[in-house]
Amino acid sequence: MAAACARTLCKVGWNILESPAARRSGTVSYLVGNVGAQGSRRAYGTGGTGVRSKLLSSLRGGGGRVLGCAFLLGGGVGLYQTVKFSVQQHLAEEESKDSGGGPKLTLYQYKTCPFCSKVRAFLDYHGLPYEIVEVNPVMRKEIKWSTYRKVPILMVDSDVQLNDSSVIISCLKTYLISNNKSVPDILRCYPELKSVNDRGKEVTEYSNKYWVMLSEAEIAVVYPEKGMQKEEMKWREWADDWLVHLISPNVYRTTGEALSAFDYIVREGKFGTYEGFFAKYVGAAAMYLISKRLKSRHNLQDDVRQDLYKAVNDWVAAIGKKRKFMGGDQPNLADLAVYGVLRVMEGLQAFDDMMANTKVKNWYRRMERASLNHEGRK
Known about the structure:
This protein is of the alpha+beta class. It contains 16 helices and 6 strands.
């Protein structure tokens, strides 16, 4: 619309300049000078019949050419601004395409939660831009609008809600590969199931959550070797059902480690002043005791470090010496899941001990680089 207005101004200006009255009026420079000398006295006028009559007389006399030049100048400036805006808009669209474009993503999380860290690992690796809403773990007012009261929650375009870390990852991976499918359509492949666990508590699970919903042709491209898809699913489930349960007993193994862990949690999380104080000391004491119960529930050894060491060494052994990642030359969803879980221990004694006493270090550093460099970006 702006371009059309600018073209109209140019056309009007040209018609005025081509009019007989304008051609009889003398040089443009003379007229511009005449307006500069005489028009300054009228600069603060507000119009009226006198102004209109002078304008008409100027058109009949020598001022027509000035007016034509003004229209041409205004139209030219307008066209310039229109072209400039169009170029800027085009560049912005191209930049958006280069950065992945796609839907707007908002992640509701606890930063130190291993399940939230899994989702961030996936988003970072694929270079998907997203906003973070840090949830207060005490009041959780940031997700009071949701009937699902856990994190992570990923909102897609502010109207589609994805729950459960593995569902989020499987759904987005399907979306990235199958461009003809919408997120709501894909989400229907992961129906919600409610049940009561052995402790009498209602739990929510999701069918197919380790499946990436692809066609046979797409599967052949993403998983070129036999057994790759099943291997990925097996280790993703292992990360959720076993590796995650080793984190708390190890980071809260002693009272000193529990205090250190909660100092990190309070520093990185969203707590009020008093909430932070009680979370650090009361929370550390509570989690130290809970970690002992978790050790018993999951049949861990007295020295829980040994279970952690064995788990990560089993993982490295499954990758083998011929592959950089379980996905081959590039990480797959199992790599991202394991990396996301282990990453929450960074800066704590358990992480340092794991890096020093297992074979995971080289793989972990490769994953770190892949995530920071967004190597999965299309």
